[in-house]
Specification:
This protein has about 625 residues and is α/β, with parallel strands linked by helices. The chain contains 25 helices and 11 strands. It starts with 7 loop residues before the first helix and ends with a helix.
């Protein structure tokens, strides 16, 4: 620094920091006006995603839940935190230090631990999970932050001021509200803003403590990321603008307030009138919050006289318009919840959550059957049984005889490749093409422990369900060698948008995702190696806790109707269990291109089975080493 001026270096550093912080936000806002579904390739200006956002009742409901929860949790945690901070200042040293240390535990605790703990607590207490449990959880993790913000202000305050106020005639309540609280106002406001932000942003805790179809913005957005959904960008842009408006308002308000005070003094108005105005404003705000609560209760209360069906499904794995049509046709209410993986679904079930219908994968169905969690299917209620592809029912390895499950969607895992880059002759090497150094830096691997090990095991000629530690060790070395020679990138569902944009030459993907990408980018094709692959199946099952088995069977049967299955398949993109619908998309939509059709006739294809715990732990340890090697 010279002559009071900042040198070029610090200026550039500050500029880079601002670019680093705000460029992702700017990109998100820019792509919210994209005319196509791509999240990386701008094809033209359009406001269609905002229009879709406005008409999406699920998104509006999630916004409503998030804001109302954040408001109520902020008020409750601010009051509790402030009272606790003041009380600690009057406590004995030993008690004070003990409570402050206890207060630090939820702050330092990993979110997932807090979430599981609260979930178990609510289950043990017999509380039905939903809006109330989410609100209680948010109050629980926000309050410690308020205490941390307010307590330093309490310590710096003269402890005798409240006593002096009472000596001068103030009541204890007046001393608190007119002397103590005004002095603590900066700390209270800081804690309040922190609590509101923490509540609005929370995902992990909310995900595990909610139920009964209640979802906040974070849960909804997470589920939406399972498929390319530009509505996320539109929603994010509106949230960003709302935050900017609030921040600008907070910045401008002090100067506006000062001008109003000057006008008040110039006009000779009394301080009492100003106080009356503030009280009226506070009363109006309180009435607004009560109104919000009443409206929310009316929105989410159960519809009297209607049957209720609780469905637990993977995110973005059903067309919600069809669910609404089912509700209308059968005069019922479907409480629909989503999970992000079979394992998280199982965790919720183990915690005591109860549902009527689940949509798990093959190996998880096998596990649920072995633990006697499922109700047997009464096939006489499934009128569309004959519409199902016969081999999906007859050759069912995860549920022999299909006693507990009804096929939903199915497919396999293969290699999506760019026809202009990848030589078809190279594909004859099967999974080993993923280690062909000609394509170094051009490979996406699926960020999944079991699917990545499946690729390596099949490339080595082993079963993907192997229990042999030697074979698993060889598969681990195969993946490590690939990492060292190919520089692969491990990705999740974002692989679809990346391949549509042509960012790499090859990717390990599921068949349904491959079909979607091929429809969006004609340069792409799909290949299933002859060494075999994961032939996966998802099915609808009824739990033993089902309250209305007849309605549950009607729901399952409804989604086997041909017209319903066509609409659902167009939305999901995977291969339907309904024979006519599967053939329609194979022969008509794909014009005979069976590259994306599951090749179930290959005897080397396998279905994942439930793993023994010791094998699962061993593989998980190897997978951790693979990921850390990148």
């Amino acid at each position: 620094m010279r002559h009071g001026k900042i040198s070029i270096g610090p200026k550039l550093y500050i500029a880079l920091c601002f670019v680093f912080f705000y460029l992702p936000i700017a990109v998100t806002m820019f792509f919210s006006f994209n005319s196509s579904k791509s999240l990386t390739h701008f094809t033209g200006f359009s406001a269609q995603w905002y229009e879709k956002l406005i008409h999406d009742q699920n998104i509006l409901a999630a916004v409503y839940v998030s804001i109302s929860i954040a408001i109520f949790a902020t008020i409750a945690s601010t009051v509790l935190g402030t009272i606790t901070a003041i009380g600690l200042s009057k406590s004995r040293r030993l008690l004070k230090e003990a409570l402050l240390n206890i207060n630090n535990v939820p702050i330092m605790n990993p979110d997932i631990v807090t979430a599981i703990s609260l979930m178990i607590l609510f289950t043990s207490a017999g509380l039905q999970r939903g809006y109330v449990t989410m609100l209680l959880a948010h109050i629980a993790f926000c309050t410690p932050f308020v205490i941390t913000s307010v307590y330093p202000k309490v310590r710096s305050m003269d402890q005798n001021l409240a006593d002096v106020a009472m000596d001068l005639g103030a009541t204890p309540f007046q001393a608190l509200t007119k002397v103590v609280v005004p002095l603590l106002r900066p700390g209270i406001f800081a804690g309040m803003l922190l609590a509101f932000t923490m509540s609005l942003d929370d995902f992990v805790v909310s995900y595990f403590v909610t139920g009964n179809g209640v979802a906040n913005i974070s849960i909804l957005v997470y589920n939406m990321t399972k498929r390319i959904n530009p509505t996320i960008n539109a929603l994010s842009t509106l949230l960003i603008l709302a935050v900017v408006i609030v921040m600008v308002g907070m910045y401008i308000w002090p100067s506006v307030r000062e001008k109003l005070r000057k006008k008040t003094r110039a006009g000779g108005r009394t301080l009492r009138r100003g106080r009356r105005g503030r009280k009226a404003f506070a009363a109006a705000g309180f009435c607004c919050m009560i109104a919000i609560a009443v409206i929310f209760a009316s929105q989410f209360s159960a519809i009297s006289g209607k049957q209720t069906l609780r469905v637990f499904n993977s995110g973005e794995y059903i067309d919600m318009d069809l669910v609404s049509q089912f509700e209308e046709e059968y005069n019922c209410e479907v409480v629909y919840e989503t999970y992000d993986s079979n394992e998280s679904m199982y965790t919720k079930l183990q915690s005591g959550s109860t549902y009527d219908i689940l949509v798990p994968s093959d190996y998880m169905i096998e596990r649920l059957i072995s633990e006697e969690y499922l109700h047997q299917i009464e096939w006489n209620y499934i009128k569309n049984k004959d519409a199902i592809i016969p081999k999906l029912v007859e050759d069912n390895l995860y549920d022999p005889g299909s006693r507990y499950s009804v096929p939903y969607y199915w497919g396999n895992v293969g290699i999506l490749y760019n026809k202009n880059i990848v030589d078809k002759k190279d594909l004859e090497a099967g999974w080993e093409v993923l280690r062909n150094t000609k394509y170094k830096g051009q490979v996406y691997m699926y960020d999944s422990e079991r699917d990545s090990f499946m690729v390596a095991l099949k490339a080595l000629g082993y079963s993907m369900n192997t229990k042999d530690k030697g074979e698993l060790q060889e598969a681990y070395e195969w993946l490590i060698n690939q990492s060292e020679t190919m520089d692969p990138v491990y990705v999740g569902d974002d692989v679809m948008d990346n391949m549509i944009s042509g960012n790499k030459a090859m990717a390990v993907v599921y068949s349904g995702d491959a079909a979607y990408v091929i429809n969006e980018n004609e340069d792409m094709d799909y290949y299933v190696p002859e060494e075999g692959t994961n032939q996966w199946y998802d099915a609808m099952v009824i739990t033993k806790y089902c309250r209305n088995t007849e309605l549950a069977h009607q729901f399952i049967n409804y989604f086997l109707n041909e017209d319903v299955a066509i609409q659902n398949t167009e939305y999901i993109g995977y291969d339907s269990a309904v024979k006519s619908v599967y053939e329609y998309f194979r022969d008509v939509e794909y014009k005979g291109n069976t590259g994306c059709a599951p090749a179930s006739d290959n005897p080397r294809n396998e279905v994942f089975h439930q793993q023994e715990q010791k094998v699962k732990v061993y593989m998980s340890n190897l997978w951790t080493k693979v990921k850390s090697h990148q």
